[in-house]
Specification:
107 residues, mainly alpha, 2 strands, FIST domain-containing protein
């Protein structure tokens, strides 16, 4: 991907299967692309060892977002910012990571 899209910031994760419109794909790659006309700024963070209890890694990622955007993420206007979280499905960490996010934002 980075070889073919040299000027793009590329990130992703593995998955056990891709679901599109209710159908499971095989031997496929799912891609999202955003134009720089839509996104004026981008910050990517990687939380490693997500299959282990890694609330500290999640907290560090959001502290980095706070610093980069010069605003606490929990105070950001959801009509101006978007967050995208990719979790390796084989890590079995989706629920725990969701709980870590809830504890951080505690709406």
């Amino acid at each position: 991907m980075t070889e073919n899209f040299k000027h793009a910031q590329v990130f992703g994760c593995s998955t056990a299967g891709e679901l599109v419109t209710g159908h499971m794909l095989e031997n496929a790659v799912v891609v999202m692309a955003f134009s720089d006309a839509v996104l004026e700024d981008l910050k990517i963070e990687l939380v490693q060892n997500i299959s282990q209890d890694n609330a500290n890694g999640v907290e560090q990622a959001f502290a980095s977002f706070d610093k980069h955007f010069n605003e606490p993420t929990k105070d950001m206007d959801f009509t101006k910012y978007v967050g995208l979280i990719l979790i390796d499905g084989l890590s079995m960490a989706e629920e725990r990571t969701g709980c870590d996010l809830y504890r951080r934002f505690c709406w």
